[in-house]
Amino acid sequence: MLYFLNEPDKLPASFFTDKNKVVRSSLFRFQSQLTSRAVSVKYVLNQREDYVVDRKRYRVAPGQFLLVNPGQEVEVNIRSDRPVEGLCFYLDPKYLREVQAALLDPSFVESTPEELPDVSLPSGTYAHHLPELQACLKKMVASMERREDSSEEVLYFVAEQFCKTFLRQQQEMMRIETVKHSTREELYKRVNTARNYIHDNLGNPLDLEVLAGVACLSKFHFLRLFKQVYQKTPRQYIIDLRLQRAENLLKGSSFSVQEVCTKIGLQDMSSFGRLFRKRYQISPSNYRKAHRASFV
Question: β-strand 73-91 against 21-35: which pairing, if any?
């Protein structure tokens, strides 16, 4: 069900009983405190929104999204001279288990939703950290703006990608070689925190000592765990991510090749050119020319 939140005091009664819904908001002033009953994905379209989740503050900028899990205490505060617009997807835990069951067993012969664990991802603000979910949200926002898909279809596609991301993270976590499940969860959380730090600071110098410190692990322990989880060393991961960002900037921005090099955290143009040519069999400047020529 799709709800429009412009005047909070005029919401229909069904808004408070609907467990799965999409809320399109446009607000100048809004303040609320509640305990989340569902997984919610709060996607900001313009301006910014300020939240407090379990006493931790989050500022969500346009194009970013905030994940909140059931049972968490949430406070939102909006004060703006211009309307702050956003979309929030509310996903009931039972509904997510059903989607998870469909992904694991499309025939529904082997498993039932009740047997599966709750689907959740770490709460917090995301931008580049979950690229598949981010891309899905952007696509669904555009679809809703063009009125191509119903709110029910949009909810399913978001729930499906949410579950796929959850299942991928579960597979990554199970690669950690330890006996206790609680230990595996904690170590995965630490390594994933360092991974998120890489995504947030790609334009800055990133060395093993800094990343190990973010993960609260020794350098040796961090290096071993990171490779177990992501199947590549931190250096290989950073190079791959930088080259992906460079490719996107060369295709979709007006930055010079030198500026692209700097923005992805490299200072040496010769190293950038060598790495890019090794990956794509073409120099960065020729890659840009070829991409632009394809639109002529």
Answer: antiparallel
Do the Cβ atoms of 51 and 75 come closer than 8 Å?
yes
Q: Which two tokens stand for residue 151?
A: 């709110």
CB 81 within 8 A of CB 28: yes
Q: How far apart are CA 145 and CA 141, in angstroms?
A: 6
Banded model confidence at residue 205, pLDDT cuts 50, 70, 90 = confident
Q: Where are the beta strands (DSSP E) in 92-121?
A: none
Confidence of residue 295 (pLDDT cuts 50, 70, 90): very low
> Residue 23 and residue 171: Cα distance in Å, rounded?
32
CA 171 – CA 229 distance, rounded (Å):
9
How many C-beta atoms surround the C-beta of residue 123 within 10 A? 20
Pick from 281, 288, 234: which is nearest to 261 by CA? Answer: 288
Secondary structure letter of residue 19 according to DSSP: S
* pTM, two decimal places: 0.81
- Provide mean pLDDT across the span 51-56: 91
In sequence order, what are the residues at sequence separation of 6 or more whose Cβ sits closer than 8 angstroms to the Cβ of residue 63? Answer: 44, 127, 138
* 54: pLDDT strictly greater than 50: yes
- Tokens 């279809």 found at: 153
Pairing, β 2-5 against β 65-68: unpaired
With the C-alpha atoms ordered 109, 114, 118, 119, is the resulting torsion angle positive or negative? positive
The Cα–Cα gap between 147 and 149 comes to 6
